[in-house]
Amino acid sequence: MYIHNLGLRGLVILLGAFFAAASLQAAIISDDFESYTPNVGGNLNPPWTHTGNAYATTPPAQSPIKNSPTDDQGARLYSNSTHVNPNPSITRGITVGSSDTLYVQFDFKAASGALNPHFVLRDGGTWPPDLQFHIRGSSGGPEYRDSSTWNALGTTIADETWYRYTFTVDPENTPGLNTYDLRIQSLASGSVDDTYNNLPFRVDTSTYSFVGFSFNVPQTTVAGLCEIDNVLVTTDPDELNFQTLGVIPEPSTLLIWALGLLGLAWCARRRRTK
Asked: Would residue 176 be called left, alpha or beta, if left means φ above 0 and alpha means ψ between -120 and 50 degrees?
């Protein structure tokens, strides 16, 4: 059916159905940490489960990528000589279809000298994690864990600098050892945009049920601090955002499409009334 035969009312109904269908692709987790009372211990629980000194706070924990003009909070994991047991961590349960590719994206910044803050994807409360990854390891850059050892990647992660990490994870039912792809982008200048493919899990798994962030070893100084923002866990790659600082945010593809259709309907309506 052509647009001019559809009519404005019919087009509005069509767009409503389109957006309703699109909403079914909602993220499993989408958290910019704006909804929590800042600087209150344990304020991330629920929906996150936390240990140690992990809480939402205002800048400098805010990523340079804001979701609104008033977006000014992120999550902080902080450990010093008075906060070393237990290690600070936040975890959250997820449910993923066994044949769905999983996408995880988050923004990260580490203080000078922060050792081994890591991201994990695991099956329930079992240890070790299935996917275990040092966001910044002792090598000064990201490190992935295979079945036996830690392996450094080629990217250098600078102190007090925001980066966006994007993981593309094999479906749960992938035969053999699961793998994942990783993209790392600098949000400060765009000077880093590195991609790594087919990184192995530490342990093969049949279920992805928890994601989490924590320090892998106890910290003994104020340097045991990192900040995380804009956590997205989804099975829809269209929800990923690869914007970097200095790039004007583009309107969403859905909005452009909707406005274009409404414009066509308006033109068709004008032709009929002439």
From this structure: left
Cα–Cα distance measured from residue 202 to residue 205, given in angstroms and rounded to the nearest whole number:
9
Is residue 64 within 8 Å of 190, Cβ to Cβ?
no
Q: What percent of the chain has pLDDT over 70?
A: 72
Closest by alpha carbon to 59, among 48, 73, 79?
73
> Average pLDDT in the 121-129 region?
81
Report CA dihedral (215, 220, 221, 222) to the nearest 10 degrees. Answer: 40
Listed in order, strand segments (DSSP E) in the chain are: 29-31, 49-51, 54-57, 74-79, 89-93, 102-110, 117-122, 131-134, 143-145, 150-152, 163-169, 179-186, 193-200, 210-215, 224-234
Buried b (16+ CB within 10 A) or exposed e, 233-256: bbbbeebbeeebeeeeeeeeeeee
**Residue 220 in contact with residue 98, Cβ under 8 Å?**
no
Mean pLDDT of 36-48: 87
* Domains recognised in the chain with CATH numbers: 27-235 (2.60.120.200)
User: pLDDT digits over 163-195, tens only?
Assistant: 999 999 999 888 888 999 999 999 977 789 999
- Residue 26 tokens, joined: 């909602």
